[in-house]
Amino acid sequence: MSHNTFGHLFRMTTWGESHGPALGVVIDGCPPGIRLEASDIQADLDRRKPGQSRFVTQRREADEVEILSGVFVDERIEAEYGGPVTTGTPISLLIRNTDQRSKDYSDIRDKFRPGHADFTYDAKYGVRDYRGGGRSSARETAARVAAGAVARKVLDHLLPGGVTIRAALVQMGPHAIDRAYWDWDQRDLNPFFCPDAKAAAFFEDYLDGIRKAGSSVGAILEVVAEGVPAGWGAPIYGKLDQDIASALMSINAVKGVEIGAGFAAAALSGEENADEIYTRQDDGPDFRSNHAGGILGGISSGQPIVARFAVKPTSSILTPRKTIDTAGHATEILTKGRHDPCVGIRAVPVAEAMLAVVLADHALRHRGQTGK
Q1: Where are the alpha helices (DSSP H) in the chain?
Q2: What is the mean pLDDT of the chain?
Q3: Which of 17, 140, 157, 177 could link 199 by a cystine bridge, Cβ 3.0 to 4.6 Å?
Q4: Measured distance between the N- and C-terminal CA atoms of the chain, rounded to whole angstroms
Q5: Which residues contact 103 (CB under 8 A, 6 or more apart)?
């Protein structure tokens, strides 16, 4: 049981380590006849890659994706589709590592970083890749983003109207955005993927202080999918929100997930929490609120799907911390190298990718069960 695979009909299996020669993903279940080339995937990878501002790790990776299998083009296909299309067979994507500095980790080879997966990986496997954390590194999420780009293509193929999936950073440390200033257009105008321009300006000075101190801070992200029709998901053990929670919880450093009002729903009355339904002129349902986050009984309602998750502070910091070594002796540790002072920033495109993977999987499952 390696547990490196996620999904049912649309399935992805990621592989590779932070300081290995490459990492990648194998995608199975993608329908045939979908136009796909590397540039479709690269755009999303470019949003996640490191070294794009002083607020993220300075590791320099091009994150250029290579499609190794699962697409085909000849003269007929080129004339009909304008480029390569998926064949329905497994799609293998490769992303080479080019800027590893494994020597940065030589001092911690025999020490466990507090808050990191060093101890638990060693306890489980009896061996661990201390160079950047191996599979526990956020470097693995590049493969997820690549898979998410393919999932978006599947959704566009199945739903001509398309599904819009967007995520944003809504809190850094204890500082939350003002939702009255929420503007999706602002999100790509600052290095934090923040929809509040005023909060983004504050985050610059705030995170500069954290970064210069060699420390780190956590964050809360929100991801929204619009255009998902009513009916996706299944009761009991195939709930859409169950799979979304699993997908988001699987992202590195995530420690909490909520759907819709989430934990805040516990403080609401039944009257406040119930999303009242009215009839629209086109006879469709008109929900006056969305505390459910677009999912009722595990099945999509047609409203926007809304989820949030909390990301803990990066565990690799320059402040000495008490720990033990592999022999069980007490010692101290500080982590050198290049690390994100707030790993939540680059988790934004990862969140979008994981939600896209879940929705593509449920779209195929819904079609298989209902024919729609």
Answers
A1: 38-48, 75-81, 118-125, 141-158, 197-212, 240-249, 270-273, 347-370
A2: 91
A3: 177
A4: 34
A5: none
